Amino acid sequence: MIPDPHQAGSDELQSHLEGEGLNVRDVHGAILREKDDPRDGYEPIPLWLVSAFMALVFWAGAYLSFYSGGFQADVFDPVQVSWAGGGAAVKGPPDPMVVGKRLFTANCVACHQPTGLGVAGQFPPLAGSEWVLSGDWHGDNHLIRILLHGLQGPVQVKGSTYNGAMAPWKQLKDEQIAMILTYIRNEWGNSAPPITAEQVAKVREETAGQTEPYTQTQLQAIPAIKYESAAPPAPEGQTAPGGADVPPPAPAGTPLATPAAA
Amino acid sequence: MSAILAHPATVTPEMEKTRRALIDESTRLPVILFYGSAVFWLLIGSLLALLASFKLNEPTLLNQWGWLTFGRVRPAHLNAVVYGWASAAGIGTSLWLMARLCRTPLRHSKLLIGAAIFWNIGVLLGILGILSGDGRSIEWLEFPNYASFMLFVAFGLIAVWAILMFRFREPGHIYVSQWYLLAAFLWFPWLYSTANILLNFQPIQGGGQGAVNWWYGHNTLGLWFTPIGLATAYYLIPKVLGRPIHSYYLSILGFWSLALFYSWNGMHHLIGGPFPAWLISASVVASVMMFIPVITTAINHHMTVRGNFQALKWSPTLRFTVFGAMCYTLASLQGISMAIPSLNVVTHFTHYTVGHAHLGLYAFFTMIMFGAMYYILPRVVGWEWPSARLIRWHFWLVAIGIGMMVVVLTLGGLLQGLALLDPDITFMASLDYTKPWLFLRSISGLLLTAGHIVFAVSFTLLLLKAGATRSEPTLFATDQDRQPEPLNA
């Protein structure tokens, strides 16, 4: 059924050429004045171009050997595993002051402000705050608890009373919380040992049953722990007497200070 | 008698001209259908673009109607110009080029008319779907399934037609434009159907969606618009000048290196994203390797025009086409630079990328399509363009408009990117840097839209065969005696 590929078009054209149809004089001017259909020239490819392309191919191989992550499906950082650099290219852990600042800018500045001074009468300051720097009765474990589960009701910071509500941030990862805390403890003139992801993980585990934001009263009832520098979480024996094993809900005897709505 | 036609030496110039006339006549209805719908969607797309752009200047503008919120208007604009305008214009141009290059009158035009109908229904349903809230949150594939299915049917019909045309061509040398067209007609239905199945009909899980999304998004430019745009430039530049294309060898190198490297490029949209490092790095490498097809094609086109640049003063076809071909080189080199991770860090997620997209899809592809329409339509309709003044206005409005848009989005995007990288600048503050540039962008959008309206008027007048009967071309300037040699378009 398929007609001869060259026949059909030719016949039609032929019938016209034999004078039955279009006369060339009737053809539109645009077609009459047209130049020949495009044809190919055969200039050689210049040598410099071939050389440049070869150099590119060489670069491509080198780039892939440096940044392909060894062609492993589970390597996401191009410089982590490299065929050329071996282990030398492995990056150190991320700097908490950089990542922490980014996370702080994204999540915390709205209330605590870029200056870390908060807003008078509304949001407590972080700069010089005894809550952040573990002064008085405040422990590092309290700081982690607040970030994980939030805080509500009246609180005293640097001699002023604030009555607001801080949202829980337990949706953040342990590393992220650790970096934010390390950052706020070392910015705006603050200086305190870093908080590690392990410490956050431990507190998160201990407080798994906490569903409500803490109040200052509840926190005061939990003995303070002050971690030593960047050491891993304090061994079990060192936790304060009766300390961190206490389940998170407020001890039975503590009167639940009814949080005033913010 | 077919033996005579098989021997070009026996085909007289008279016969050749008759053949061309027959070919052009056979393409009339499909080409006008696709071109007409393209111009219609260009106007719709321009209005949607203006609205989206104004909303960035004045966010509360018309936001009381869900249909006209930014989140719907912007994808509606994108899809109207990508599928409604650019694809339809590309198909219209390709139909004519295929027939000319196969040296045989267009056959099976019912396939094409069917495709045009499916196409327009698909685009209409798609735009209405997006505006009414049915759109998908996948960039470049926002059309709801009922619309993308229509487009796929249209693509399928066109692909079948292209294969039949090629099968029944007059024997002889296959010119470079033909390679690109045939490749585009086979690549795109495959791309479109694969991406739609993997993302909309049977969605795959997880990060793979992002990878498929950008494999598709980038390849729409690389394996659909770029081949059609280049095929057109490869045909029109030597045709108008009456010179051979500089080098067949460069044509081959350009075509195969494009085919080899372009399809890997999409992952450079995901630099810094949660994807295996090799995937991104392979894409960065493939993007940089695009130097090969781009430089090759640029040399080939430039050397063909060399010595004849003064022809740009007269020929609308050539001026639009060469403008587009030059912007192809520019857009590609810019794209390569944006794939380099250290620069991508700044430009990613900024208006810089938007500027780049317009440089590619407008300054390159759309300008070449305008050039093609200026060449093809007088032949298909049998009427010269009624007014050189309208063509002049069209050229300067869109050339200045797109130039301005690319420059302001590029500068504004760079400032925005640097602000986003600065941890001391909040996200909201980083937006302030873009405001004056986005205002200028709206101005450039007005220029473009004005140019499109001028073109639509010119197009309509041509279809109505307005003005006096003429047989000489409508050129920018009338002092033909000063031309180096007579121009045919």
How is this structure best described in words?
The complex is a heterodimer of chains A (262) and B (489). Chain A is mainly α. In chain A, 35% of the residues lie in helices and 5% in strands. Among the domains of chain A are: 47-89, no CATH class; 96-233, Cytochrome Bc1 Complex, Chain D, domain 2. In chain A, strands 1-2 form a two-stranded antiparallel sheet. The longest helix of chain A has 21 residues, at 47-67. In chain A, 29% of the residues are buried. Chain B has one domain (27-477): Cytochrome C Oxidase, Chain A. Chain B is 74% helix and 0% strand. In chain B, helix 3 packs antiparallel against helix 17, helix 4 (70-102) runs antiparallel to helix 5 and helix 12 (316-339) runs antiparallel to helix 14. The two termini of chain B are 33 Å apart. The model of chain B is unreliable at 1-6 (pLDDT under 50). The chains are: A mainly alpha (262), B mainly alpha (489). Chains A and B meet through helix 1, helix 2, helix 3 and helix 4 of A and helix 1, helix 2, helix 8, helix 9 and helix 10 of B.
Features:
heterodimer, A: 262 residues, mainly alpha, Cytochrome Bc1 Complex, Chain D, domain 2, two-stranded antiparallel sheet, 35% helix, elongated, disordered C terminus, B: 489 residues, Cytochrome C Oxidase, Chain A
Indicate the topology:
The complex is a heterodimer of chains A (262) and B (489).
Chain A lengths: L6 H11 L11 H4 L14 H21 L28 H12 L1 H4 L17 H4 L6 H10 L1 E7 L2 E7 L7 H11 L12 H10 L9 H5 L42
Helix pairs in contact in A: 4-8, 7-9, 8-9
Chain B lengths: L1 H5 L6 H14 L1 H30 L12 H33 L6 H23 L13 H23 L8 H26 L6 H34 L6 H14 L15 H13 L1 H15 L10 H24 L1 H7 L3 H31 L6 H34 L5 H6 L2 H29 L26
Helix pairs in contact in B: 3-4, 3-5, 3-14, 3-17, 4-5, 4-8, 4-14, 5-6, 6-7, 7-8, 8-12, 8-14, 9-11, 10-12, 11-12, 12-14, 14-15, 15-17
